[in-house]
Design goal:
By secondary structure, the chain is an alpha+beta fold. The protein has four helices and eleven strands. It has helices at residues 8-27, 122-133, 189-203, 215-223, and strands at 32-34, 38-41, 52-54, 75-79, 92-102, 115-118, 152-159, 162-172, 175-183, 209-213, 227-237. The protein has an eleven-stranded mixed sheet with strand order 1-2-3-4-11-5-10-9-8-7-6, sandwiched between helices. The protein is globular. The mean pLDDT is 95.
Length: 239
């Protein structure tokens, strides 16, 4: 249950992020389930994706640990409210980040925008994923099945015909999640964020944007009009 100190938008952000993780899991054919307190995948998730996401601030390890693969290296948990201590269970803190929120009534950023294009084919997605990874052999994360999910929008951001940046948007729980914002080569990250925000406003008008970031990416999000809501923590069990 949400405590009086927990803004409802953080609960919505946690659920939206879990829905995105579930969509990625579905595209890989993974077995996963939701409960009131947590989303969890009994199959190991793709790189960069957690095996469990807490959905309420009073979620406890008993709500998910027995249903995820803690026996093999690489198990991770997204502690959406930075409320857990998973050290006794063999986890270490991977990083702490901030939930971010942008009100729908805010004007679009003043930065010049790149042209947004929905990624709609497997061939486009391969190009997008390679750019997201920074070239080379990209890990198997984004599969074409994602493109059939009506709640998911994979966006390529172009200057002329050249892909210069990208992002993912997912619509659930009354908010739109913005994630996987990237730039190609030395493209301006603030312009990428501005363009992703504009694409979200065009595709989902009047809906708040949420996400989570840390480090330089958090600074770029704040420059685009986001504000911070509170911390989340990602735990990793590497042995």
């Amino acid at each position: 249950m949400t405590s009086p100190e927990t803004p409802p938008v953080i609960v919505a952000a946690a659920r939206n992020n879990a829905d995105w993780c579930a969509a990625v899991g579905d595209s890989h054919g993974l077995a996963h389930t939701f409960s009131e307190k947590a989303w969890r995948s009994s199959d190991r998730t793709p790189p960069y994706y957690p095996d469990a996401v807490t959905l309420q601030p009073d979620a406890a390890p008993a709500d998910f640990l027995s249903e995820i693969d803690t026996a093999s290296p690489g198990c991770s948990v997204k502690d959406s409210f930075a409320a857990l201590d998973l050290v006794p269970y063999g986890f270490v803190e991977l990083f702490t980040a901030q939930w971010i929120h942008r009100r729908p009534e805010l004007a679009a950023p003043s930065k010049p925008n790149l042209r947004a294009e929905r990624i709609s084919t497997a061939a486009q997605l391969r190009i997008w994923q390679t750019a997201w990874h920074g070239g080379g052999n990209a890990p198997d994360v984004f599969r074409p099945e994602l493109l059939d999910d009506p709640a998911v929008l994979v966006v390529g951001l172009h200057l002329g015909d050249d892909l210069r940046a990208g992002a993912v948007l997912n619509d659930s729980s009354g908010v739109v999640g913005i994630s996987n914002v990237f730039t190609v080569d030395d493209s301006d990250a603030d312009v990428a964020w501005s363009s992703a925000i504009t694409a979200a406003a065009d595709s989902f008008p009047g809906v708040p944007l949420i996400g989570y970031q840390h480090g330089d990416d958090l600074a770029h999000a704040l420059a685009g009009g986001f504000t911070t809501l509170g911390p989340l923590r990602v735990w990793l069990r590497d042995s």
